[in-house]
Write the structure tokens for this entry.
Amino acid sequence: MHAPAIRPATPADFDAITAIYADAVLHGTATFELQPPDRAEMLRRFATLSDAGFPYLVADADGGPIGYAYAGPYRARPAYRFTVEDSVYLAPTAQGRGLGTVLLSRLIEEATGRGFRQMIAVIGDSANVASVRAHARAGFAMIGTHPAVGLKFGRWLDTVTMQRALGAGAGTVPGDR
């Protein structure tokens, strides 16, 4: 596999993105979604985030996306407008090679450049050690674990919350957004 190019996602990427996410939904615990959304729904979600100014990236290697990452609103209320939540998903064949860390690092740069000040990771399943480690390497601090908040595959799952300042973080008050 060649080193992947990290670039903004386009609608043409959504056959691959939909397949990557479907695998995560059906076989993993990183997401608590139970049924994979179809391509149309994935494109709707992408358009909502892109239109609102949130970064959405793909890792492109050997002719197509093998992973993707995006930042979205952490919460809907206006006081949270400078805080984003990250999501990173990789094709099964791309896992374990450090690509998640590469995507996350680029996502941090993109979100910082767009004026966001905090990034929150809500990691599905406290047993998802690879994601916890990738976030720690990227400068995220452990905030805590919410035990047994999701039920998937017949078992209760935790979520791990981690946080990282972006740019000046809480050191200054940004202008209106």
Observations:
- The mean pLDDT is 96.
- Strands lie at 5-8, 56-61, 64-73, 83-90, 118-124, 141-152, 155-165.
- The radius of gyration is 16 Å.
